[in-house]
Amino acid sequence: MWQETVTLSGPYHFELALDRLKLDPLHVVDLSNKTIKVPLQENTNRTVIEVKGIGNLHKPEFLIKGEGNQQLLMERISEIFGWHTDLKKIHDHFQNTDLKDLFRTHFGTPLVLDFDPFSCLLKCIIHQQLNLNFAFTLTQRFVQTFGHEQDGVWFYPEPEVVANLTVEELRELQFSRRKAEYVIGIGKLIASGKLDFHKMKQQSDEEIASELIEIRGVGPWTVQNFLMSGLGRPNLFPVADIGLQNALKKYYQLEQKPTTAEMEQMKTPWEPYLTYASLYLWRSIE
User: For helices 242-251 and 274-283, what crossing angle results, to 10°?
Assistant: First the structure.
């Protein structure tokens, strides 16, 4: 067992990040102790890393405990929690836009990635066209039926396991037939090596989108959410997202949800940080 302390330049509001992560029942979050247990796959080894906030908004500091390759795992934890992102620079950018009050309310909220790209893509597929509560419930059923539990933390099933599931097995969990086919198809693509997440890290958003959009069941909404939550790309704004539409309606006190054309116009001043506009708007209604 090793442990390491990490100190960042503020702002970084770990409590608000944990509050959002706790929405997912699969996440092991302790708000009172400011900890989260992160399931990571290191080659064929599964390991659980504990991240504990021991600093504050303006002087963020973390105690990380785990087992395995310390350097590789710390690099991944830093990537997941966005520790190299300058949140002050992003905040200052939005102070010159009409989202300035929103960014003051959620000051220092980081973008936290899903714990691995495969689980992120599966989650995006499962969550399509479902209300958030049932989406989390269905994902939890899926993981707890076919995944692995270690140290009280659940790991998503490996691609090889998903590839060998049957539609009937997923239908028993209340998947639609089509969604079951999509999930199994994703598992087969990754298990066969036709979809390579490591290669994606070197590719542009456009290159990744053109590859993913060819996959059955993957549309623009799924691509954009994967780029944001799976790879941490900073400039995505999924205009088809109902949550974003509702958040904009509330923020601007509109009589009805904005149209796609209106959202395209709204978003221009928020570039190149559209992902953070999306995140903070979602936070405003969660």
Answer: 80
Name the class of domain 117-229. mainly alpha
101 is catalytic: no
Beta strands 61-66; 148-150: pairing state: unpaired
Catalytic member of 19, 24, 205, 241:
241
The pLDDT tens digits of the residues spanning 147-188 come to: 999 999 999 999 999 999 999 999 999 999 999 999 999 999
Class of domain 2-84: alpha beta
Entry pTM: 0.94
Provide the b/e sequence for 82-92 (b: ≥16 CB within 10 Å).
bbebebeebbe
The structural domains of the chain, with segments of one domain joined by +, span 2-84, 117-229
Q: Are 254 and 248 in contact (CB under 8 A)?
A: yes
